[in-house]
Structure formats: structure tokens, C-alpha cells
Specification:
This protein is an alpha/beta fold. It has eight helices and seven strands; from the N terminus they run E-H-E-H-E-H-E-H-E-H-E-H-H-H-E. Bound molecules: nicotinamide-adenine-dinucleotide (NAD).
Length: 263
């Protein structure tokens, strides 16, 4: 008998929000390597991201839903199901950051961060669960943060949103506990992406440091490893959460933080 080596996620469909860059693109690439077809989402020209995914041999499309708009989020989920005939894996990853003290925090920035980093996860999950329930299998993976579990000064909106994502993860895990659907969160520490590069550049400017010194200072304040986690490593954790071994992990928070929260 001849057995082909079928990738673990072959035939599955994944939506990764905010996957034109950074962690989302890393997760999408890892899921594609495991065989899943991909719906990418996010701002900017998606040509390079689509090519990176298609190079693995799977099918990939892009939908430009603005994750701050509930109707567009629903359209993204419908588009995925119509394009590939189902939706098996939802990765709620799109997110933004803004750093300012509470008394100086622009109100419209607060609303935007809550909308993109928290409410979008509710809207996408709400739209995806009926499709997953009909199939009897599903994976919802929420990219939270160490800031879903602890605070840092200047990050009120982000920390509030990420704590909200952890709470939502728990409730969604409970509501699906008797099904083949699991809902879990990944909590990265510092990962070098454009979102973090901006914070390094701001620190270098504010304290007249070289980029190298600002990088070491940023890591040194929080992350005992003094190294970034990589988007490939976060992708590997997402693939694990889609595996049979993770089938009874429900409502978990998987820290990938170089020891940040071990302190
Ligand atoms: P990034 O800036 O590299 O990527 C963000 C992605 O989200 C991009 O594709 C962008 O186009 C998209 N996006 C932003 N606003 C959007 C909107 N309104 N609608 C649709 N797409 C939108 O950032 P990243 O560092 O890769 O962050 C990804 C996720 O990981 C975020 O939720 C972030 O909070 C989380 N996270 C990042 C780190 C880190 O150290 N980089 C640590 C913990 C958690």
C-alpha cells in the first residue's frame, strides 16, 4: 500500500486577520506549510504576502476588511466560507498599539484599539462559530499578549483590550467545550515586528539612544531572555493548537515571552 505524506492541515481553510505583516503573516505561513488554504487580511499591498503563502503550494486569497468595522468582519468570514467551502481555523490577530498616559490618551485612539484589538475578535468569532459547529471541528486562536495578563505604563487601551481577549477566550472555550471546536490564546512577549520597531524608534528618539541600545533597553526592561521571540515560533504554536494533541486544550493562555511572566 502506498501512503502519501498528507500535511496535517491539508484541505482545511484558515482566516488570519492582520496577516499582511508581522505575527499574522508568520502564523499564516506556518498554517500554509501545514497544508491549510489561507484567507489573508490586512492593510497594505498583499502581493508579497500572497506570494509567500502560495509558495508553500496551498491556495491563498486576500480580503481587505477593516477589522474596526463589524459589517466588514462578517463579510470576511462569509467570503472565506464561499471561496473555500468552509472555515476551520480562525486566527484573531489584527492589532494596533498606542502608548500614552491615561490623562493624555486620545479618546478616538482608545475607541480604535478597543474596536480592532478586542471587539473584532468577538465579531469574527460570532460569525465563524456556526460554520465550525456545522462541521463539528474548529480552531479559534486569539493572539492576545503578555499584556492580556499584566499591565505596563502607557498601554491602557492595549492592556484593557488584551485582558478582554483573554476573558472572551475563556467564555468562548466554555461555550464550545462539548464540541470539536477549541478556543485558546497565544500570549507573546516582545516579537520584532513593525508594531514593536515603532516603539524601539520612539525610545531611541526620546532618550537619544542608538537603535541597538534602545533595542537592548526595551528587551532588558521586561524580557529575561534579552531576545525577541520570532514570528516563526508563534506560527509553530498556532500549528500545534490545530493539532490532535491540543484537542482538549480549551481556554488556555500559551505564553511565548522569553520569561517575561515568570518573574
Ligand atoms: P504588525 O503591525 O506587524 O501587524 C498588524 C497587522 O494588522 C497588519 O497586517 C495590519 O495591516 C493589520 N491591521 C491593523 N489594523 C487593521 C484593521 N483595522 N483592519 C485590518 N487589519 C488591520 O503587528 P504585529 O506585531 O504582528 O501584531 C500582531 C498581533 O500580535 C497584534 O494583535 C498584537 O497586539 C499582537 N502582539 C504583538 C507583539 C509583538 O511584540 N509584536 C506582542 C504581543 C502581542
Amino acid at each position: 500500500m502506498h501512503h502519501t505524506n498528507r500535511p496535517a492541515l491539508a484541505g482545511k481553510t484558515a482566516v488570519v486577520t492582520g496577516s499582511t505583516s508581522g505575527i499574522g503573516l508568520g502564523i499564516a505561513t506556518a498554517l500554509a506549510r501545514a497544508g491549510a488554504n489561507l484567507v489573508l487580511n490586512g492593510f497594505g499591498d498583499p502581493t508579497g504576502a500572497l506570494a509567500q503563502i502560495e509558495a508553500t503550494g496551498v491556495r491563498a486569497v486576500h480580503h481587505n476588511a477593516d477589522m474596526s468595522r463589524p459589517a466588514e468582519i462578517e463579510a470576511l468570514i462569509t467570503f472565506a466560507a464561499q471561496t473555500f467551502g468552509g472555515l476551520d481555523i480562525l486566527v484573531n490577530n489584527a492589532g494596533i498599539q498606542y502608548v500614552e498616559t491615561i490623562e493624555n490618551f486620545p479618546v478616538e485612539r482608545w475607541d480604535q484599539i478597543i474596536a480592532i484589538n478586542l471587539s473584532a475578535t468577538f465579531h469574527a468569532t460570532r460569525a465563524a462559530l456556526p460554520i465550525m459547529r456545522a462541521a463539528g471541528w474548529g480552531r479559534v486562536i486569539n493572539v492576545a499578549s503578555v499584556h492580556g495578563l499584566v499591565g505596563s505604563v502607557g498601554k491602557s487601551a492595549y492592556v484593557a483590550a488584551k485582558h478582554g481577549v483573554i476573558g472572551l477566550t475563556k467564555v468562548a472555550a466554555l461555550e464550545t467545550a462539548r464540541s470539536g471546536i477549541t478556543v485558546n490564546a497565544i500570549c507573546p512577549g516582545w516579537v520584532l515586528t513593525p508594531l514593536v520597531q515603532k516603539q524601539i524608534d520612539d525610545l531611541a528618539h526620546r532618550e537619544a539612544l542608538s537603535i541597538e541600545d534602545a533595542t537592548l533597553k526595551l528587551l532588558g526592561e521586561k524580557q529575561p531572555s534579552a531576545r525577541f521571540a520570532s514570528v516563526e515560533q508563534i506560527g509553530g504554536v498556532a500549528v500545534f493548537l490545530c493539532s490532535e494533541a491540543a484537542s482538549e486544550m480549551r481556554g488556555a493562555e500559551l505564553k511565548v515571552d522569553g520569561g517575561w511572566l515568570a518573574q
